[in-house]
Every structure is written in structure tokens, then in C-alpha cells.
Amino acid sequence: MRKLKKGDDVIVITGKDKGKIGTVTNIKDYNYLIIQGINSVKKHQKPNPTVGNAGGIIDKEMSIHISNVAIYNFSSKKADRVGFKLDTNNNKVRIFKSTNDVIEP
Fold first, then answer.
1. Of 6, 19, 47, 94, whose CB has the highest number of CB atoms within 10 Å?
2. Is the dihedral of CA 90, 96, 101, 105 positive or negative?
3. pLDDT tens digits, residue range 16-40?
4. How far apart, in whole angstroms, are the C-alpha atoms of residue 104 and residue 94?
5. What's phi and psi for 22, nearest 5 deg?
6. DSSP assignment, residue 101?
7. Nearest in space to 79 (alpha carbons), one of 29, 11, 15
8. pLDDT tens readout for residues 70-82
């Protein structure tokens, strides 16, 4: 089970977007995430008439390493760590380390 999943709210802890909060939209590789509104860059794109792309300069969200983000705990308004425990049905669930609250999927 992964510590961060698609749809989790995370906070950037280092880099040019430090302190920004976003939602994980895609997991590109085992160590890289794409987060909505974070690490956006301007990319020069060639026109492709067969697909319908006009080309030009577009804004694109690039991937960020998983070590540069932490899950955001809305109850404490801080970055938190993820732990695991078994619930009453012996299912493995993710929890916030500071408050032991279950992270809802």
C-alpha cells in the first residue's frame, strides 16, 4: 500500500512552490507525482494539425519528486506523516501519525 495516492491533498515542503497545497492528480512513476496547480511551467509546443493542436506557449504541470511533498492534515493545518494500522475488520488503513485519524480515500 502506498503512502500517497491519487486524490490526496498534499503540501509542498521544499522547492519553488514551498507552502502551496494541491491535490495529487497522477502518479507518473513510483517516485514522481503530478499535483494540480503545483510546479507549472511554460512549455513551447509545436502545432500538430492531425490532432488539432494549435501550438504556441502552454502552461503545463510537471512532475515533482515524492520526497518534496507531505500529506496535509486539515484538522491540524500542517504537514503530517502517514502510518498504517489494522481496522476492526483487519483491513490495512492509512492514518495520520500525529492524530491517529484515518485518512479517507
1. 94
2. negative
3. 999 999 999 999 988 999 999 999 9
4. 8
5. -150, 175
6. P
7. 11
8. 999 999 999 999 9
